[in-house]
Design goal:
single chain; mainly alpha; about 100 residues; about 40% helix; 4 strands; two-stranded parallel ribbon; 4 helices; about 10% strand
Length: about 100
């Protein structure tokens, strides 16, 4: 699990929130809260998912939680940092059915 911090976020034109991390490199809990509904599936996977489960969760966020691909990139990045995943998945290129 990552170090945590709290820093005010700003939303961007593409629906993202910034910063995801604080200056120290700690994960911004306010950014996590912002993405909690948008990227709920990927953020809720926990410590030991398979790569296939992560891909399915990304697609679920895109198809059912109305995440845009730029938003899901940020949600996936938060989950990767928080849980310490080593997957190399690009949500912008993932093909979802």
């Amino acid at each position: 699990m990552a170090n945590l911090c709290s820093k005010s976020i700003v939303t961007t034109a593409d629906g993202n929130a910034t910063p995801l991390l604080c200056r120290s490199g700690a994960l911004n809990v306010l950014a996590w809260a912002y993405y909690a509904n948008i990227s709920a599936s990927v953020l809720g996977l926990g410590l030991n998912p398979t790569e296939g489960q992560v891909q399915s969760a990304i697609c679920d966020d895109l198809n059912h939680n109305h995440a845009t691909r730029p938003e899901e990139v940020s949600g996936y990045r938060l989950a990767t940092i928080y849980y310490g995943w080593a997957f190399n998945i690009d949500p912008t290129k993932l093909v979802c059915q």
